[in-house]
C-alpha cells in the first residue's frame, strides 16, 4: 500500500519512522492548525490475518493505555480513528531526537551529558513511569529508542505498544502464558524467563539507561543477544564508579539496586528510585537499603528458559518463550 495522503481530517506530511508494528507520519490538523504525529498499523502484516489481528489488538491497547495518561513527560494522545480499514492514532508531535540517537553520538563523537542533566532526565522518566504505574499501566519496553528528548532535553516517554494495563501494583502476565515481551537487552530477568512482570520490570530498564548515562556503557554486554541475556540473568554489572571515578559511591548503590536480579530487591516504586537518585546527586544519605551483592534469580523450574533470536538486539520482541534454550540458574 502506498503512503496515504490523508487520514480522517489529518493531512500526511512525511514519514517519521517505521517499526515492526507500525509506521509513524508527521501530519497536520487543519482544524487546529497544528502538527501532529500519526501512527498506523504496519501494512507489512496485511497478508497474515493472525498477525494483523495481533497487531490490531496491541494497537488498540496502546491507544487505551496512552488515553489513560495525562502527564508532561508522556506523549499525549489527541485522537483515534479508522479510515478505509486503516486504524490510526493521532499524538503529540515531539520536536527532537530519541535518547538512543544521543547515546549513539556519545559513542561516536564523545558527546556527554552533564551529571545534573543525566539525573534530571532520568528523574523525568521515573516521574512518567510512576504516574503510569499508579494508573495501572506497565510499559514493558523502556529503552532509549522509546524516550524522546525535546530540543531543551526534556523527556517524553513514547511507544506503549506492548504496555500491559493491570490493577494498581499487581504483577501481570499475558493470558497466553509464558511470553517474552520487550527488548531483550533492556529486559529484566523475569521478562527474559517469561514470568509475571510488574512495575519493577520497568525500573530495571531505567537502571540500564541510568548506567549508560553515567558510564557511556551498557551494564550487560556480550557477543549477541543470547550472551547479553545470560549476563542479565547471572552477572552483576561493574559498579559505575569504577568506570567513572567522578561519581560518588551513592550512585553505585542506586544503580545496583535498580538492577537487582529479583524484583523484590529493586526499588518498590519509581518514586523511591527517583528520590534516592536525587539524594545521590546532592550528596545526601540514601533513604533506601543498600544493594544485596548475593541477589540471584529464583528459577521457575530446574532450568529457566531463555529465548535466542538472531536479530537486532534493540528491536522489540513479542513471542512465546523458546524452550529450546535452557539456562541453568545457579548462585554465582
TrEMBL record:
Any coiled-coil regions, as ranges: none
Binding site for ATP: 39
Pfam family, one: Pkinase
Region (Disordered): 284-303, 309-332
Superkingdom per UniProt: Bacteria
Annotated ranges, domain Protein kinase: 10-281
InterPro entries, sorted: Kinase-like_dom_sf (IPR011009), Prot_kinase_dom (IPR000719), Protein_kinase_ATP_BS (IPR017441), Ser/Thr_kinase_AS (IPR008271)
Catalyzed reactions: L-seryl-[protein] + ATP = O-phospho-L-seryl-[protein] + ADP + H(+); L-threonyl-[protein] + ATP = O-phospho-L-threonyl-[protein] + ADP + H(+)
Protein's recorded name: Protein kinase
Naturally occurring in which organism (per UniProt): Massilia cellulosiltytica
Amino acid at each position: 500500500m502506498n503512503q496515504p495522503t490523508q487520514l480522517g481530517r489529518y493531512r500526511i506530511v512525511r514519514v517519521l519512522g517505521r517499526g515492526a508494528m507500525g509506521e509513524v507520519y508527521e501530519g497536520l490538523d487543519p482544524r487546529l492548525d497544528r502538527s501532529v504525529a500519526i501512527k498506523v498499523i504496519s501494512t507489512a502484516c496485511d497478508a497474515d490475518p493472525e498477525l494483523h489481528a495481533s497487531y490490531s489488538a496491541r494497537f488498540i491497547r496502546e491507544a487505551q493505555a496512552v488515553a489513560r495518561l495525562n502527564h508532561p513527560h508522556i506523549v499525549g494522545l489527541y485522537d483515534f480513528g479508522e479510515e478505509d480499514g486503516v486504524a490510526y492514532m493521532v499524538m503529540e508531535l515531539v520536536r527532537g531526537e530519541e535518547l538512543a540517537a544521543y547515546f549513539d553520538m556519545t559513542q561516536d563523537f564523545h558527546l556527554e551529558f552533564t551529571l545534573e542533566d543525566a539525573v534530571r532526565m532520568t528523574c523525568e522518566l521515573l516521574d512518567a513511569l510512576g504516574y503510569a504505574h499508579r494508573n495501572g499501566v506497565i510499559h514493558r519496553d523502556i529503552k532509549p529508542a522509546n524516550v524522546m528528548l525535546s530540543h531543551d532535553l526534556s523527556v517524553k516517554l513514547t511507544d506503549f505498544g506492548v504496555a500491559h494495563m493491570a490493577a494498581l501494583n499487581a504483577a501481570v502476565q499475558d493470558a497466553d502464558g509464558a511470553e517474552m515481551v520487550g527488548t531483550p537487552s533492556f529486559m529484566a530477568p523475569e521478562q527474559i524467563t517469561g514470568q509475571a512482570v510488574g512495575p519493577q520490570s520497568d525500573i530495571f530498564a531505567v537502571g540500564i539507561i541510568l548506567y549508560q548515562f553515567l558510564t557511556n556503557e551498557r551494564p550487560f554486554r556480550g557477543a549477541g543477544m543470547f550472551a547479553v541475556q545470560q549476563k542479565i540473568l547471572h552477572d552483576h554489572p561493574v559498579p559505575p564508579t569504577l568506570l567513572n571515578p567522578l561519581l560518588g559511591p551513592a550512585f553505585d548503590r542506586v544503580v545496583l539496586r535498580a538492577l537487582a536480579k529479583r524484583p523484590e530487591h529493586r526499588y518498590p516504586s519509581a518514586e523511591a528510585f527517583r528520590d534516592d537518585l536525587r539524594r545521590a546527586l546532592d550528596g545526601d544519605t540514601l533513604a533506601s537499603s543498600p544493594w544485596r551483592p548475593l541477589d540471584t534469580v529464583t528459577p521457575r523450574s530446574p532450568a529457566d528458559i531463555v529465548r535466542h533470536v538472531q536479530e537486532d538486539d534493540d528491536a522489540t520482541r513479542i513471542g512465546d518463550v523458546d524452550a529450546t534454550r535452557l539456562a541453568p540458574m545457579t548462585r554465582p
